[in-house]
Design a protein that fits this description.
Elements lengths: L3 H8 L6 H6 L3 E6 H6 L2 E6 L2 E7 L5 E5 L13 E3 L2 E3 L6 E2 L5 E3 L3 H4 L4 H5 L4 E7 L2 E5 L19 E10 L3 H6 L6 H13 L9 E9 L2 E8 L7 H4 L2 E4 L3 E3 L3 E9 L2 E11 L14 E3 L15 H11 L16 H18 L23 H8 L3 H6 L3
Length: 389
Amino acid sequence: MLTKAQNLELTQVGRGTPMGEVLRRHWHPVAGVDELEREAIKPIRLLGEDLVLFKDLTGRYGLIERHCAHRGADLAYGFVEKDGLRCNYHGWHYGRDGRCLAQPYQDRVAPRGALRERILMDAYAVRAHAGLLWAYLGPQPAPQLPDWAPFHWPNGFVQIAFAQVPCNWVQAQENSIDPLHFEWMHANWGRRLRGEHDHAPEHVKMAFDEFEHGFVYRRITEDIDESHPLWTIGRVCLWPNGFYLGEHFEWRVPVDDENTLNVTWSYLRVPHESEPYVQQSIPSWHAPVADRRTGCWINTHVINQDIIAWWGQGRVADRTRENLAVSDAGIAMIRRQYFRDMEAVAQGLDPKGVLREPASAGGIPLPCGDAHEFFAKGLPRVAYEAHPR
């Protein structure tokens, strides 16, 4: 249980808040590379800031404040230029660094540019990697953009799904270190949805460990023993707001205090008959969380079931009213680390998970057990179709 003040510290993401400053020391995936191929300007909201993401006519990415410094027009309807973005209202032109490059008519009558020189919009770094556009809103020098080894696995099809979730990011991320919910939220609920009334095998043992890039939970149910990858390898709560499950990543990107962008990057190995397979581009799409006809939450998919659990705790979970149990040991662990991170940042230090050294050419390995063997070697089509994955 947390105090009201601690819960606010943990969940608020705005500029100047303790957790907001921690999150500004990390890179966050905010869009698909292919999205800006289709439309060069995309408005986004990230860490409580309204911004506009764009790709200029030279192919470079920018991320600046959404509203023009002149009279507040929406730059999401602006024009991309060879260098930056121009407001469609009066033509003020901004570079990727937020500087005002031109002010039509003002530059004619006041050519010394005194007004233009005073203008500096908030502007942030953007990088494209693994089909995603990543943003960094923190102080310089920026840390390394994490380059995870699965981003380099060959002979696979990758896709990216985005889902808008109306709740705070922390309750989504706490799900990443909660083993027991698999038994009930997924296995048993799945049985009920299929009209079955038996129960899934119960959990009999859990363990939680910390490592350089986050935390790992391990679990055993009645039908498996300690030789199973769920125990020997476990699952990764990727720091500070990710989850890694062997064949896919998820990031719970804080939009603001009450909204989260859930980002899923998934890899599907092609069968031997399709090798060599080189994917030319990575598609992204936006997944629905509710049925458009009925307005009811979609509950037939694993990630959607998780979303229902996150949202069901309220827009911002009230942790002053909870009662943590033994299975919540991992949640207690990561909360302690978040508070340590806040203290580190307040002292001018890097929080956990910030990378300063470049990754190797093959990317940073993560615990994935038999997944790596399966994805690296693949299977013939017949064996692939029969594989439990």
